[in-house]
Amino acid sequence: MIPHTLQITLSVAVICYFIIILYYLKRKMLELKYTLVWLAAGVVMGVMIYFPELLVSFVRMFGIESNMNGLYILCIAFIFMILMTLTSIASRQQFKIKTLIQELGMMEKRIRELEDELRDGKNCG
After folding, report:
1. What DSSP assignment string belongs to 70-89?
2. How many CB atoms are closer than 10 A to CB 14?
């Protein structure tokens, strides 16, 4: 069981966490699809505050010796999930940037060719 004062303190921290995430979303510092990962993390934190027995069940299910070890494993797993999500996003953005650079290069080449054709047409006429 979590002491009542700690539960209140953690609840305030999670509420502040949500306020920061929603502030970033409102200011367009985060896109909605990326914000969902952080909101999911906040929901899990909130659930763990009010239902700590879920952590105990998790620890027992996997045969972990200590509740704290289980909490650390859960935190590390969540961090890995967030890192994989962010890595996936960064990879997709890198692919899009590469494609845009290639398209821009082709367009610049085409513009130069058209300018050369115009220049040659004016010189002949």
Report:
1. HHHHHHHHHHHHHHHHHHHH
2. 20
Q: What is the pLDDT of residue 82?
A: 84
Tally the C-alpha atoms within 13 A of residue 33's C-alpha that lie toward its C-beta: 4
- Which amino acid is residue 72, in one-letter code? Y
Single out the residue of 82, 97, 30, 2 nearest to residue 74, CA to CA. 82
Strands (E), 22-108: none
The pLDDT tens digits of the residues spanning 64-119 come to: 888 888 888 888 988 898 889 889 888 999 999 999 999 999 999 999 999 998 88
- 3-class secondary-structure state, position 78: helix
What residue spans define the domains of the chain? 1-51, 68-125
Rounded distance between C-alpha atoms, residue 24 and residue 22, angstroms: 5
Closest CA to 72 of 3, 80, 36, 10: 80
Residue 54 phi/psi, 5-degree rounding, is -65, -40
Total-model pTM: 0.66
